[in-house]
Every structure is written in C-alpha cells, then in structure tokens.
Design goal:
- The chain has a domain at about 20-115: Cathepsin D, subunit A, domain 1 (Beta Barrel).
- About 20% of the residues lie in helices and about 45% in strands.
- The protein is an alpha+beta fold.
- It has a 7-stranded mixed β-sheet. Strands 8-9-10 form a 3-stranded antiparallel β-sheet, with no helix packed on it.
- The chain is built from 5 helices and 10 strands, in the order ααβββαββββαβββα.
- It has helices at about 1-5, 10-15, 50-55, 110-115, 145-150, and strands at about 20-30, 30-35, 45, 60-65, 75-90, 90-100, 105-110, 120, 125-130, 135-140.
Amino acid sequence: MIWRLLESLPIELEQSQRKNIFHTRCKVYENICYVIVDSGSCCNYCSSRLVDKLVLTTIRHPKPYKLQWIKDDGGIMVKDQVNIPIFIENYQESILCDIVPIETGHILLGRLWQFEKHSIYDGLINKISFTHKGKKIVLFPLTPQQVRDRTK
C-alpha cells in the first residue's frame, strides 16, 4: 500500500532527496551490493547474509559487544568482523565491518567511515565528497525510484 502511495507522488517530490536515507551501490567481487551511508550509526556494518552468500573470510571481533537496536528481545552479540573490498566507480577500498543480520542493505557505512575519510556531506545537493589516495571522490545517492525498484 505504501509503495502505491509513493509511486503516485509528483515528479518534483520523486527526485527530492531531502528526507531520504543516502543509498548507493557498490561492487564486491563483481557482485552489486547496496550501501547505506548513515551518520546516525557509530560503526560500519555488513549483512551476515552477504558474508554467507559471498563466502567471505571473517575475523573474531577484538571486543565483542551487544547491539540492542536490531532486536528488542535482548539484542544480538556482535562477535565477528569482515574486510569488505568495495568498488564505487573510481573509489576502491577494503572496509572493516561488524557482521550483523541487517536486511535494509548489504553494507552500512557509519560515522566511523565518514570520520576516517574526512567526508563532507552536502545536504542541499545530497552528495558525499572526500579525498582518497589524492583523488577527489564524489558519491551521489540512488534516486527514490531506484531504491524502490531494488526492493521489488
């Protein structure tokens, strides 16, 4: 029902990113994966489903911790991490992520990644820019239509 309402919005609102989460795509070993950049998360996370599907090598978390926001009934223990090699256009890097059972996307880059990259988020244009290996990188989000299309 909600998707029908969203699909009936006028074009001007359709392209607006003002109230949307920053979604983009990357490649992990030639597989297209969906990334969310979220300044409200203090860590970088990777979906346990992605780790299983791509048979990625995990490492024990040096300081396991309980994550409450995923499950209300006591949370989950974050015990493992993985280095994810991501490729977004001309940006390539391996990012250490905690493994959690998230379904909203494959990878969630939080404040940790943003801080390490000295990234700048321009809310008006809705872009993230940073310098990587001496090159300026600019990430643009998926449109609301592209985000909806991936969930169908």
